[in-house]
Amino acid sequence: MSEALVARKEPMNMLVCGTGAGILPMFLKNNFNSDQVKSITTVDINPDMVELAEKYFGFDAGESSTINSVIADAYAFLPA
């Protein structure tokens, strides 16, 4: 994955379906710079998962964050 990010000329918008503990989006945020990743959107149907990820695992989807969290069904969120 990192080779694809390095080879890109423009920063990418990333989508993570299912927030889980927030570990994958936080890894992306912390290990790639703004020249590689423009934004990270997580989609989770369960708002409790996002709350638990924030409370116990340091997940940060605040207004000033690169990460945006959407509460929705990922299948419905994706374009047809």
Largest sheet: 3 strands, parallel
Strand content: 15-25%
Cα shape: globular
Report the total helices: 4
**Terminal residue distance:** 25 Å
Look at the helices and sheets and give the structural class: alpha/beta
C-alpha Rg, in Å?
13 Å
Q: Enumerate the strands of the largest sheet in spatial order, edge to edge or round the barrel.
A: 1-2-3
Average pLDDT value?
Answer: 89
Low-confidence runs of at least 5 consecutive residues? none
Helix share, percent: 25-40%
Short description:
The protein is of the alpha/beta class. The chain contains four helices and three strands, in the order αβαβαβα. β1 (12-17), α2 (23-31) and β2 form a beta-alpha-beta unit.
Please explain how this structure is put together.
- The chain has 80 residues and is α/β, with parallel strands linked by helices.
- It is 38% helix and 24% strand.
- It is built from 4 helices and 3 strands.
- It has helices spanning 2-7, 23-31, 47-57, 74-77; strands spanning 12-17, 37-44, 67-71.
- A 3-stranded parallel β-sheet has the order 1-2-3.
- The model has no long low-confidence stretch (mean pLDDT 89).
